[in-house]
Design a protein that fits this description.
The structure is a single chain. The protein has helices spanning 9-30, 33-62, 98-105, and strands at 76-77, 87-90, 93-94, 112-115, 125-129, 139-145, 154-160. The chain is built from three helices and seven strands. By secondary structure, it is of the alpha+beta class. The strands form two sheets. A four-stranded antiparallel sheet has the order 4-5-6-7, covered by helices on one side. It has a three-stranded antiparallel sheet with strand order 1-2-3. The chain has one domain (12-158). This is Type II secretion system protein. It comes from Shewanella hanedai (Alteromonas hanedai).
Amino acid sequence: MKKQNGFTLIELVVVIIILGILAVTAAPKFINLQSDARASTLDGMKAALQGANTILYSKAAIQGKEKDANAADANNVDTTGDGTDDIKAVYGYVKADVAEIGKVLESDGSEWTIAVPGALSAADIIIYPADITPSATKKCFVEYTDATATTLPDYDVVADNC
């Protein structure tokens, strides 16, 4: 009788089944698709806010309002070209205000919530998907802080336990 070299077919099948079971149970821990998708969505919102602010700054500069320090009615920017001031600006960028951010993002509140953060963040405004509620343990939002005389507006994505 010859000495056997290698694996039998049954041994090979058992090993493949065990590897398949391990892959199915371990994969979700390494591939968190929902969290990655939310983080990408937040990155998209940050980019949309930056883009809207760039356009607003351009219009404020054309109207000579890019150096105005406060968002009083005199510093509103006409964004539609109809002669009526539409958006409150601080140093040419949108004021960190729930209503003003909603205007520049053209948000009706059905997909995104714009809010004052309270204890969640030191930012002036946070923007988060409407289907979640941020908390101390679930921080999933875009932070926006007003421009100052020496700094541009600040945009940050916070995606902790998103």
